[in-house]
Structure formats: structure tokens, C-alpha cells
Design goal:
With 438 residues, the chain is an alpha/beta fold. The chain contains 14 helices and 14 strands. An 8-stranded mixed β-sheet has the order 5-6-8-7-9-10-13-14, with helices on both faces. A 4-stranded antiparallel β-sheet has the order 1-2-3-4, with helices on one face. Strands 11-12 form a two-stranded antiparallel ribbon.
């Protein structure tokens, strides 16, 4: 029977103080479901705390698994997706994809890291993640590691292709806001899709939990993208270089959204990079981009009330004010639109297209979905114009893909992210082909 692979998929952690226990809890979940799938019910039973072993018996576990196999078929993927504190327990939610249907699980852990319960929550109509058809798990391996910087540990997964002696490595860099290692949005996990797709084509990847998710308490004061993004990217690149089998002459960064916008800065921090992939990446100033987003979603809402119009006008006024912020005119820790002034000032002073034009060594690949509601083709055209004639640059516009690079039938509204889908295989192929051009 094929061994299950359990991944750190979406570490949605309610309390950062327990972040050091996450790998232990997820590792126990891995051992538990692998033992169950292999019929090693005694081993699975041994993972429970002594206080519950008389209530949760070996025979009970066997009966549970037999019933699930009968009803749902054999498991295809069983993936932990989040960990949160509830009272004196830690609850780990696990998504299960079986041959015939899906079934989620909740594993309860005590503070000592021992399992004290297993629950099967009722199914809901909410869509869940499904692995893409191009995710061939026989062709790659996953390793759970930490990306470490002073006083920080970020859970990460390194995906490496099997039976390849020297392979390229791609570091995946998040969009704005808190993000797990899969860049989970609703039931969608674009970074997980990309990692699996590239690995099946002989390309490794590194993805990690964003600092803003694990250490939110650090972002209630003045900060910039250095603390939010750049410090951890630099550490992730160092970690990626040390992976066995990596060809250090083929190191790449895949920057998504804000991550792509910052790739010229990343290139200066890591000149050893061979190339930079900008996916759905703003070419304009952030306030201008946010104005366009607000206008689009205001029109989509079709709410013509005076109250809605007033809120829309207020948002534009606020963003115009952010555009005019100047260093020295405001305290760095002053909060403007939910972020410190230091953050806006840093981005206001940054011209990403001009910075990219100055990069001499690295190649660029710019990817954009025409149905993207957050970063439009205006940005794509600005990148195209700014990087025109730059050696090694390639650009690709996908007519039917959204911000997550998932196929859409129309541009649509924000609720599209509630629908489960996968990153287009065409995008995976284009990235792999561009990397292999060297």
C-alpha cells in the first residue's frame, strides 16, 4: 500500500506562541494517518495520551478506518491545513481526499503534544482543495524544515524531484498580507500547485509561512517590506542553496503579487540568482493599484446607495493622501489605512520597473492573467514597455486566468476565490520551459 504524504499545507495559527509546536503536532498527524493507512493500528493507538487510551481503542481505530475505506475508498491525500488553540487543547484540522469523496478530520492535542481525540466534522457545502492532475507524487519528495532568521522560525517545505542529480530551485515569495506556505486563498493553494507541478518536471522549490502570519504582534509598530518580506526571502534562498542536489547556478525566485513587485530588490540581495519570475505583479505605485481595485469592486457591487458612494469616495481620498506622503511629514509609526506610515513611504519611494531595468545579470519572466481583478493588464503593459529589449526577458498574458492563475469564464468579482481550482498547467509548463532555457 502506498505511503501517504502529509504536508504542512496551511498553517493558520491562532496563537503565535504555539508556533514551535506546529511541526511536532503535524509530524504526529503524519505518523498517525500513515499508520492507519498501513493497517498498523497499534502504532496509531500508541500516539494517544495514556489518559484516553482506554476510550480510544485499537479495535475502534481499525473499525473507523475500515468503515471510511468502505464508504470513501482508499485515501489519495490527507493534508493538515491549520492549527489553533482552543482552551487547553491544540486542534489540528486535516483535509482528506479519498477515491470516492472527501472527509476532514480534527485531531486534538494536549499541551504536551499528545493526541487526546479524533473527530470527523460533518461535511459542509464549502468547497475544499483538490490536488491538480499534474501533481504526480511518485516523482517528488517533500521535506519539512525551518527558515530561520534572528528570533524567527518559519515552517517550510522543500520539494525536490526524484531521480534527478542536479536540478534548478525556485523560492516562492508571497503576495501582500499574512500568508501560509501554500498561499491559501479559500479552497485554493497556488503555491502547493506550483511546487507539485514544477517538481514533476524536475524543478525543486522552497515555500514557507510568511512572517506576518506567525508573528503578527511584531507588525503593530513601524516596519517596511524589509521585515515583512525581504529578510525571510534572503534566508530562504540560503536554505535552498544548501539542499542536496540543487544546481546553485540555477536559482530562481517566483514572486507573486507584492513578492513579484519586490523581485528587483531581492535580486540586489541575492545576486547569485539566475532569474526572477513576476506573477500578477504591480508595476504601478500601490495607491494607484488600490484605487483601480476599489473602482472595479465598487462597480461590481452595483450598490448605488449614497452610503456606498460615500465609502467609495472616502477610500479614494485616503489613497490620494497616501500617495502624497513625504518622509519627515509624518511619524513613521503613524497608522494610515491600517499600515504604518513607514510602510507607505518605503513603497512610495520605490520604482520597481526602473529598478528592474537596472538589473544586468538576471533574466525576467512576467506572467499575468487577463481576468485578474487585483492586478490588471495595465501593469503587464508597463512591465512589457519597461523591460522591452532586455536580454532574457519573456512575458506571457493568459486570456482566461485570474489572480491565482486559475481558469475563469469571466473576470468576475471577489467571490470567485470561494471556488476550488488549480493553477493552470500551461503556466507550470511555461515556467519550466523558461527555466530550462538557461
Amino acid at each position: 500500500m502506498k505511503k501517504l504524504t502529509l504536508l504542512f499545507a496551511a498553517l493558520l495559527i491562532a496563537f503565535a506562541g504555539f508556533s514551535q509546536n506546529i511541526i511536532q503536532d503535524f509530524s504526529t498527524a503524519t505518523d498517525f494517518f500513515n499508520s492507519m493507512d498501513q493497517g498498523k493500528f497499534e502504532e496509531a493507538h500508541g500516539l494517544f495520551d495514556e489518559s484516553v487510551k482506554t476510550k480510544i481503542t485499537t479495535d475502534g481505530l481499525k473499525q473507523l478506518w475500515t468503515a471510511l475505506n468502505t464508504k470513501l475508498g482508499k485515501p489519495k491525500f490527507i493534508t493538515p491545513v491549520r492549527s489553533q488553540e482552543q482552551g487547553e487543547y491544540i486542534l489540528v484540522t486535516v483535509e482528506g481526499e479519498f477515491e470516492l469523496d472527501d472527509q476532514n478530520f480534527t485531531l486534538a492535542f494536549n499541551k504536551e503534544g499528545k493526541m487526546v481525540g479524533i473527530f470527523l466534522p460533518p461535511k459542509t457545502n464549502v468547497q475544499v482543495y483538490k490536488s491538480p492532475v499534474y501533481a504526480d507524487t511518485t516523482r517528488y519528495a517533500e521535506q519539512e524544515v525551518y527558515i530561520e532568521t534572528p528570533n524567527h522560525q518559519l515552517a517550510a517545505i522543500i520539494t525536490t524531484p526524484k531521480n534527478v542529480n542536479s536540478f534548478p530551485m525556485v523560492v516562492l515569495v508571497h503576495d501582500s498580507g499574512p500568508g501560509d506556505m501554500d498561499e491559501t486563498t479559500g479552497p485554493n493553494k497556488p503555491f502547493k500547485d506550483i511546487a507539485a507541478g514544477l517538481a514533476a518536471k524536475g524543478i525543486g522549490s522552497t515555500r514557507y509561512v510568511k512572517r506576518t502570519l506567525l508573528y503578527p504582534q511584531e507588525f503593530n509598530k513601524a516596519f517596511t517590506v524589509k521585515e515583512e518580506v525581504l529578510d525571510d526571502v534572503a534566508a530562504a534562498i540560503v536554505k535552498a542553496k544548501g539542499v542536496k542536489g540543487v544546481n546553485n547556478s540555477q536559482l530562481y525566485v517566483f514572486g507573486y503579487g507584492l513578492g513579484g513587485m519586490l523581485t528587483p530588490r531581492i535580486a540586489t540581495l541575492a545576486p547569485e540568482l539566475s532569474g526572477l519570475i513576476l506573477a500578477a505583479s504591480p508595476a504601478r505605485k500601490m495607491p494607484d493599484l488600490l484605487m483601480e481595485q476599489n473602482k472595479y469592486f465598487f462597480e461590481q457591487a452595483k450598490d448605488t446607495t449614497q452610503a456606498m458612494k460615500q465609502k467609495f469616495d472616502e477610500s479614494l481620498t485616503l489613497l490620494e493622501g497616501i500617495k502624497s506622503l513625504k518622509t519627515g511629514s509624518i511619524k513613521p509609526d503613524s497608522v494610515v489605512a491600517g499600515l504604518p506610515a513607514s510602510y507607505w513611504l518605503d513603497l512610495n519611494a520605490y520604482d520597481q520597473v526602473a529598478a528592474a531595468k537596472k538589473i544586468k545579470k538576471q533574466r525576467f519572466l512576467v506572467l499575468q492573467g487577463a481576468y485578474d481583478t487585483q492586478v490588471s493588464t495595465i501593469d503587464y503593459e508597463l512591465w512589457s514597455k519597461g523591460l522591452s529589449g532586455k536580454k532574457g526577458t519573456a512575458l506571457k498574458l493568459y486570456p482566461d486566468l485570474n489572480h491565482l492563475f486559475i481558469p475563469q469564464t469571466e473576470k468576475g468579482a471577489a467571490d470567485q476565490y470561494r471556488n476550488a481550482g488549480n493553477v493552470s498547467e500551461t503556466v507550470i509548463n511555461d515556467i519550466a520551459d523558461w527555466i530550462n532555457q538557461k
